Amino acid sequence: MVVTADIVSPGSPADLLASVSSERLNAECFCTGLDPDALQQTLGAMTDPPGLFGLLEERCPYVFASRPVFVSARQRAKMSALVEAVESVVALPAYREEVLARAPAIARHVPGARGVFFGYDFHVAKTAMGLIEINTNAGGAMLNALLARAQRACCPPIERLLPPAAMADAFEARIVAMFRNEWMLSGRTRPLRSIAIVDERPEAQYLYPEFLLFKRLFEANGMTAVIADPAQLHLRDGVLYFGSQAIDLVYNRSTDFYFETDASAALREAYLQDVAVVTPHPRTHALYADKRNLALLSDPVQLQRVGAPAATQAVLLESIPRTEIVSPANAERLWGERKRLFFKPFGGFGSRAAYRGDKVTHRVWQEILVGGYVAQALVAPGERALSGGAAPQMLKFDLRDYVYAGDVQWAAARLYQGQTTNFRTPGGGFAPVYEAPDACMDT
Fold this sequence. Notes:
The chain is α+β, with helices and mostly antiparallel strands.
């Protein structure tokens, strides 16, 4: 069912949208979505790297969702307020002292760089909203800029929501400016000349096509860019190299968050010696992404202890689901409450080793007890219909704010089926987020 007169009333496009909740648009609006021809045309115009469209189809067939997600202006405002509140608490000396005390020693190195591409991930549905996690090397930003250029709509009210191409261009310009700012924050005065995009076995990574997009973006802005495995880096005479190429800055996509493996040895030394700028880095992971931080940020006693103001506490406690560190002291109670909980490892990422409580067996529970886990109160994800009819195809979604230095740069959704987000669902993947001026978060 498309957005027609049976959904909206006559008037201007703004009036039309104002009368329809984002919840209803997610259930009934099918007049906008991915335009595969526009996507192919956009990628086809890129002569470097060649064959990117084919690579995306082969490697990432479900990376782009077929439909966008609608959220209300109130929901977006609450998400932004939550980001601001978290950033203000992380800046408190008492918070930093407590969090860094339990992190590996490398996290106490202060490099100057803030850390690029934080991902604040939310579940938003009806009147409920919850920050599910923060990660500090969120992927997908360049793919979402590409996706924004390949959308279509067939009715004026929705067409007005589609971002102009200039918005995606501006986002890419902000990405370049962000990396240059990281360079300057690290005390460098000459121009940034070379960037290494680093991950383990990069060509085998699911989002390898995005690495190619980043490489293209950096090169288009006058920088030399390479894609490297951390084991391919080496130090010589106080300079980090990839082959014979000196590296100024490492865009770190590795999930070896504290550079603990042998493959990360050169990267670790380059970071600790400030030989190269590394972003994001171990300190950001400890301060933001360790799941134990959510236990502190959702506990009024701990927030009071680190000196969070009352107004900040109110924002955090409203929007972060209650999170506890699993321990012998609370194990029996948490087992009894497990159907209302989600369990995540302290240092996990993506959906690895994360479990919905109603799926936890006795065997898995024993692993959770000794594996370093938090238990988080469940917040249901939103739902998006891909089609109408008697049996519409419904997918879950979460929302991600891409954040740098406390500033929300872009918002995206991820559509999926299953326990957690994935890129294995037909019709699912990254989706644009369109803001509808409703008040469906009102209670």
